[in-house]
Batch of 3 targets.
Target 1
Amino acid sequence: MAEKIIIDTDIGDDVDDALAIALALRSPELEVAGITTVYKNVAQREQLALTLLDVYGRRDIPVAVGFGKPIRYETDTSAIPHQCRNLRNKIERNCDSDAVSFIIESVRKDPAIILVAIGPYTNIGMAVKLAPEIMRGVRVVGMGGAFSAVYPEYNIMCDPEAVNILLKSECRIEMVGLDVTVKCVLSPDDLAGIKQCREAEHQFLGGLIDIWMDTSIGKKVTLHDPLTVAYLIDPGILTMKMEPVDVELEGTFTRGLTAVLRTPFRQRKPLPPDNVNVAVDVDFPRLRSLVLRRVFGIQ
């Protein structure tokens, strides 16, 4: 039986969000019950998500608009994400609910639903804050943090306060950090193979990859978010470990840092309880094969 998921996404910047959604749509192990947009220009992100669903013939999946601003700081909510600049035809909205209400109501109806966080955590943090009883015990599987490295990761850094709410909650949290996802880079040969794919959905994703390659600094496609979705399809792709995790809310250079509190230098007794199942290693060949096969039909 397929597991129901809601994908909370900042689709429109890195191409990995679109690839992750496509992987979920092409995987019978998962049932996408909804998509929610988060951070900055959430209305444009909604349009890109709706366009992707239209290409895949899945306009039945509701897309709910979420918070553009993080909890603590202001941010520019009007800038057009790079991958949204080629959108031409506006697609009619298919969900009247806001993202936070959609998440809360979906969990209330089905506590087994999984929240897949592949953007900043504002929507999920606010859902936990507003409805802690309903959200208690919900499974949250997210891309975020860095647990064997000392630097803030983007999804966490954008709204550490929302992450703090989640970490202090009674949700079941699993996180795939940047220190693991950076091992998952498609090769030039992989990208050349994708360019040869001719189906409409392949062409659409290929266009988004081209935009990403033109606008990104690194000029490479890293499967950050697809790895998070792939873990739900094939848990053996990741090696996981329970850890006591907290997030830094202050600091000029450390705000948004995810800290594993079990270290040989920390003398706190007792240690805080393990609260996050953290990814510590990845089987990249297994991930690559799954993504290329499911999303692009490349064997």
Target 2
Amino acid sequence: MKKSLVVIMLGIFISVVATAGVFDFLFKKGNSKKRIEVTLRGSTTVLPIGMAVTEQFSKENKRSRVSVSGGGSSTGIKALLDGSVDIAEASRAMKSKEYDIAKSKGMKIKEIVVAFDGIAIVVNPSNGVTALTKEQVKKIYKGEITNWKEVGGPDKAIVAVGRDTASGTREAFDHLVMDKEEPATGVLELASNNAVLDDVENTKGGIGYIGLGYVNHQVKALTINGIKPTFDTVKNKTYPVSRNLYWYTTEDKINNVNGVKQLIDYLLGEKGQAIVKSQGFVPVK
């Protein structure tokens, strides 16, 4: 009887040890079993890419939870530097002062070019103007050209709309078109590409600027310096208002946050770059 009890107890002990070993393998050593949790925030221009890529990535990686939000490039970069997100989406390059903040915190920033974009200058579809020079666009936003008849259009006041100061598209426009000169005080500042689209669509004298992926029937994209904003002209950099789109993260997050490297690799891979193109932007590969 005693011998049988010892045998039973020994069997239970072996079973518990074996089970513990299985659990250790599955949950401690099996990285593939870890839940992927990644947060992204930033540019409203890059937002459609981020949302579409993470949606497909999550479908293919069932144990993943990826959250994406907008707010502007500056907002996303600040959140990365604050440590509140894993990836910042940006439609402009990080500034030297932002790199200085990262350095002061011991962060090693990783810059990833995820797509190419052209900032399309758009007008109301009823406007007869089809082309402008970059200099004319600058003068419009500086308030030096105020009526469409001055550039071959109808006798109608120009209503210029742009983006707010948190926008990477605004930063790129200021650099590529305005030569860092301030726009006129009358330029309406809006918070997103969609807001610019809606405003220009509903204002016959309106002009605005948006990412290439946002151009649709609501507005008419103008030829600038004789070059139309298209996939080819953006890719070969002949369109004069072309730029890169970025994801920013840190070496620490790539190495230690499960899912960050996987998500970046997915975006830069064949499937991810196909999604970039489907969103109206130019793939980097």
Target 3
Amino acid sequence: MKNESVLEEIVIDLYRNKLFKIGEYRLTSGKISPYYIDLRILPSYYDIYSRIIDISISKLKPLKFDIVVGIESAGIIHASFIACRTRKPVGYVRKKPKQHGTRRLVEGIVTGKKVLVVDDVATTGGSLEHAVNAVRSEGGTVEKAFVFIDRQEGARERLRRLGVELVSLMNTWFIINVLVKHRIIDEQTYYMIKNYLDRETHG
């Protein structure tokens, strides 16, 4: 219960600092969403970020991994913090192979290692799948991927087909339930996002 209470406080802070925004936003996938999660500037809010990292470390404690690998670009800084706190090596996966020098797609030694893939937000899971495949092509083993927020738009199922479990601190359902519980958003906004999620979850 303590962790859930902390997460509720974090959700409220994310909203008040405009890291969770209500509106009309076009996603990378091209879809129009009634909300947007902007965690790229999250590390600028040290109080919120430190609490998120603390609770992330607690959630990741039971997992076994040798190296933390972030996804370019947002996932790199989060992977770095998690690696530092768990005293593990860190690496990252590029969106595209480096065009000069080593032409690497994966930076960091993952061969023969159990890898935790890290990003900020999971939507459809395309970036996570790319990272998993890249790490596996270098001889790394991936069984878990971690994100702060799961938007619940197919990433969990997509990774499951790859034999990877998606671990998240929270999802959109949790966020909107907290916001309506504390009367930060009204019921009309709640149902607008709920209807969007129902369409994305059930097609």
